[in-house]
Amino acid sequence: MSLLPVARACDLAEIPVERRWLIDQLWSEQAVGIVGGEPKCFKSFLAPDLAVSVASGAPALRRFAVPRPGRVLLFAAEDALQVVRERVSGIASACGVGIESLDLHVITAPTLRLDLRDDAARLDDTVAALRPRLLVLDPFVRLHRIDENASADVAPLLASLRELQRKHGTAVLLVHHSRKGSAASRPGQALRGSSELHAWGDSNLYLRRNGERLTLSVEHRAAPAMADLALGLRAEGDHLALEIVGSPATIEAASPLPALPDRICSALAVAPHAMSLDDLRAACRVRKSAVCAALADLARAGTVARLDGGYVLADPRA
């Protein structure tokens, strides 16, 4: 008789608080899920915004911290490669980082069909080789030729993406359309096609438009969701990026950033080498004087140390 592996609940690994989020409050660590919305709701601005933040460590939407940044793999099926570069460059500029510094890789194949065994295998091999922290696939409708309304067709494809997530420890973000005229429905129920899509997600983000008002709703399987956020598309020269709009108090209450010392420690924890004062200022997106004051406190507490090349986390054994 062949038994399935089991373990007592008390023996299962715990997730430290600092490792529960890929993007604080927006996307759980190693979550699969959907960025959904009707056409022209800027889904293809939100998905690369999250990608740039994970790849750079800059806060998503300039507010939501990325505790442990890492490599991102992106497939944008509906955009020409030069459009992808322009969009990513604009978002990187809004984040205060250069596109050359991003550990963001773009799949340049003209098509990717996840319902075809060869294409699915090539994606698996690519994820295995690059080991991204986040895989972004935009949009779902261009990734298959199945019947989106048939659970029997949709479920195996979503199961393959879940297997990819578990096998390689990567988060998977799938961009998908909502039904037109579905503003009165609950966001998850408004997704086009089978209900399997809504049920599949660990973290889901929904964009909805009411006139000129654009709203972001957040949903998690295993964490409370924040209140809806109002977003707008901001232009800086030729560059475009989404931003949270509203009063400063409303924005701060909806999306508080971690304290500056914690953000400095998080940046130092993932840096491959000592970070200069300018590096830390750019990573934390605050004034240099604030970083200097926080570093002085951390140094007095023995949390950070200064080397010739910059700052590092202090060795607790020293």
Task: Characterize the structure shown.
This protein is of the alpha/beta class. It is 33% helix and 22% strand. A nine-stranded mixed beta sheet has the order 5-4-6-7-3-8-9-10-11, sandwiched between helices. Strand 1 and strand 2 form a beta hairpin. The chain is globular. It starts with 20 loop residues before the first strand and ends in a 5-residue tail after the last strand.
Attribute tags:
single chain; 318 residues; alpha/beta; Rossmann fold; Arc Repressor Mutant, subunit A; 2 domains; 9-stranded mixed sheet; two-stranded antiparallel sheet; 9 helices; 22% strand
Compact summary:
This protein has helices at 43-56, 81-95, 117-130, 151-168, 196-200, 248-254, 260-270, 277-284, 288-300; strands at residues 21-23, 27-28, 32-37, 72-76, 104-106, 134-138, 171-177, 203-210, 213-220, 229-236, 239-244, 304-307, 310-313. With 318 residues, it is of the alpha/beta class. The protein folds into two domains: 16-254, Rossmann fold (3-Layer(aba) Sandwich), CATH 3.40.50.300; 260-313, Arc Repressor Mutant, subunit A (Orthogonal Bundle).
Structural class: alpha/beta
What is the 3D form? globular
The domain tally reads: 2
Secondary structure tally, helices: 9
Biggest sheet details: 9 strands, mixed
Distance between the termini: 53 Å
Rounded mean pLDDT score: 88
Task: Please give the CATH architecture of the largest domain.
Answer: 3-Layer(aba) Sandwich
CATH superfamily of the largest domain: P-loop containing nucleotide triphosphate hydrolases
Number of strands: 13
Question: Strands of the biggest beta sheet: in what spatial order?
Answer: 5-4-6-7-3-8-9-10-11
CATH class of the largest domain: Alpha Beta
* SS strand fraction: 15-25%
Uncertain ranges? 247-253
Order of helices and strands: EEEHEHEHEHEHEEEEHHHHEE
Q: Rg to the nearest angstrom?
A: 20 Å
Helix content: 25-40%
At the third CATH level, what is the topology name of the largest domain?
Rossmann fold
